[in-house]
């Protein structure tokens, strides 16, 4: 990747904090000094039609910033260069040294691309690509609903029904978030597949289900209205007897990596340690 290929197509998206804003200004100044036209956006205000088509996104923030970028780019997969600046940074690697050196490496193409799977959720003629999880939760809080799950894999067909508060589905990269909080398994990024995890099921023998690639799950909400949350953002209300189809999206969310130090398990659990006064 060289300067000419990204000129006029760089977006800097940053978390609204003083430290992230300072980094954003520094990155924009570096890029403009190299003759590259770049636009910067506050992550909470950006809209899909505003940002337009870009080839490179510089993400300055934490995991929430990256999730918003994933929601913005549903139909395309620009390269994303993450610069950590936030509380939770599971999707980020630590950058040692000056940011300008890393930008130079990006412009020279001295990096590799990590492809993070997203899960494709389809219902009512709508499709969403999910990086963390899609949460389907009973609209009537405190009232359980009945849910049927059917899963077709290359080797088996399975189905079960449970009563609970809802259900989570998401790719391996999302297993460290909401899924982990409901005692789901932590999945390595390189483990392809997706999880189907009941929320507070009445049937205590039902546990999260790890579904292999080349599979498809169908979820039917039998007797209750369900609110849909895509990577933490509320989207729709689904009426009873509607079905949701779930499968892996194989395009991949493209993250720039430099091979720096990453301790995935430590980064996940260290931020979830109880602090006593």
Q: Any idea what the CATH superfamily of the largest domain is called?
A: Probable inorganic polyphosphate/atp-NAD kinase, domain 2
Form type: elongated
Sketch the major β-sheet.
Answer: 6 strands, antiparallel
Average pLDDT score: 89
How much helix is in the residues? Answer: 10-25%
Structural class: alpha+beta
Low-confidence stretches: 1-5
Strand order of the largest sheet: 6-5-16-13-8-9
- The total tally of domains equals 2
What Rg do the Cα atoms give? 20 Å
- Tell me the β content: 35-45%
Helix-strand pattern, N to C? HEHEHEHEHEEEEEEHEEEEEEH
Q: How would you describe the oligomerization state of the chains in this entry?
A: single chain
Q: How many helix segments?
A: 7
Number of DSSP E strands:
16
The CATH topology assignment of the largest domain is Tumour Suppressor Smad4
Cα-to-Cα separation, first versus last residue: 50 Å
Give the CATH architecture of the largest domain. Sandwich
The CATH first-level class of the largest domain comes to Mainly Beta
Textual characterization of the structure:
This protein has 277 residues and is α+β, with helices and mostly antiparallel strands. The chain has 2 domains: 122 residues, Probable inorganic polyphosphate/atp-NAD kinase, domain 1 (Rossmann fold), CATH 3.40.50; 133 residues, Tumour Suppressor Smad4 (Sandwich). Helices cover 20% and strands 39% of the residues. The protein contains 7 helices and 16 strands. Strands 6-5-16-13-8-9 form a 6-stranded antiparallel beta sheet, with no helix packed on it. Strands 12-11-10-7-14-15 form a 6-stranded antiparallel beta sheet, with no helix packed on it. A 4-stranded parallel beta sheet has the order 2-1-3-4, sandwiched between helices. Strand 8 and strand 9 form a beta hairpin. The N terminus is likely disordered.
